[in-house]
Request: fold
Amino acid sequence: MGLGITVPVPGLSVIIDAATLLYFKVLNRKEIQPQENSDLDVTAIISARNEERWIRQCVESLFRQTMPPKKVIVVDDYSQDKTSEICMELDKEYLDFIYIRRRERCGKANNLNYATQLVLNDKRLLSQIVVIVDGDTVPRSDFIEQMTKPFISKDIAAVSGTGFVTKPENFAGKVIAATYRFLFKFYSWQKTSQNHRNAISPVCGGAVAYRTEVLGKIAIPARCITEDTDHTWLLLENKYKVVHNPKALVDSEQARTLRGFFRQWYRWYSGSHQALHIHGRKLLDAKKLLFTTLIPSCIDGWIYSVWLVGFLFFSFLDPVWSMWLMAADVGLTGLVLGLLCPRELKYLPMIWIMKFPLAVAWLTSGLRTLWERLTNKQHLWGKAWERADHRTSGKKFSFLIRAATYLLPRKSNNPTKETIKCRFYQSLKMLQSKQVPNQCLQCRNLIECIEK
Reply:
């Protein structure tokens, strides 16, 4: 999630988006009319990291699409759970499934670029469109069909889908899920308006389709913690068009705890602030994006976040005025919630309270990013990240684990042919580029192995 106000309030960005929709849908009645593109072939890529809960459903849902992909490629970012075992099982079940396991953490952007180069360098994998989904999503049955519809001209580089949050079981999880649905609905409404201005920010990184040749020219950068935001701005700066299709839906699992909720939004906001520092004056090449989306969103985000944090202190000084202000803000939030997600009105008080951690995340991420920029620590921005709710099981005993690594005997780093099978053996057999031996050593690079 990129730049945006922490909650729906009548700020500058909302006024611009509302005016845009009013002009194009009421006054000018100009709508984006997608058309059928049944002749476009698609390759689906999934970058997975510890996705044992959803990876099977994700892959199977892609093969059950109304418009199935040519290939489904999973790049396993050195998962430490059962993701590898599940993908090995899927490898035996589906002929058009390719599984690649990285031998060290590389990060989502590098994994996607790795798979994209594989697609570009092999004719049997090459397709016109590359669809990227996260390993914790389950695309709806017509997801790929909806994603390919807007590719009606060569200058359309990317199409963004929409996430729909699944309901957890406990009450706290349901409140957090309701907050996600509210915010996602609001951002989807904003992106529908930004469609008309070609100023979408950003694409949904967990459900996006790219024109393959564009990915070959402009790779997904790995220089900030939200690669989707950075890449969206790069495309717009290079005069490409980015489209949002609210009908292209994926069911996704978001953070289920308050701690995870804060961490996830903190990461999204941090990535947006990092992208601002990275792009700088280059955003002048995408003036519509800069002046109608980014600057208004920044102004709204800072003003409203400061107001929310200040409200906590002001309430002790003047409780009466604070009650009136709170009632007005809750009423406004309820109005927007009723228009976008009427079923979530029962969670209105809790959703309003959730705005405070969002405001804190916005302010702290912005200030920390500024400090890192001033102290020349930008090299930390592109590090690989974990899921919001991820907890390392051995964290409390990390000292003992590190000590044990020095005491226990170490295994050889040179596995022999008799003890190790090539992890890419099944993929190579599928591609049938050359005759592959029954057993071979672990490869460093799948493309290199094919060339050999």
Residues 396 and 402 are 12 Å apart (CA to CA). Confidence is low (pLDDT under 50) at residues 1-7, 392-452. Residues 287-317 form the longest helix (31 residues).
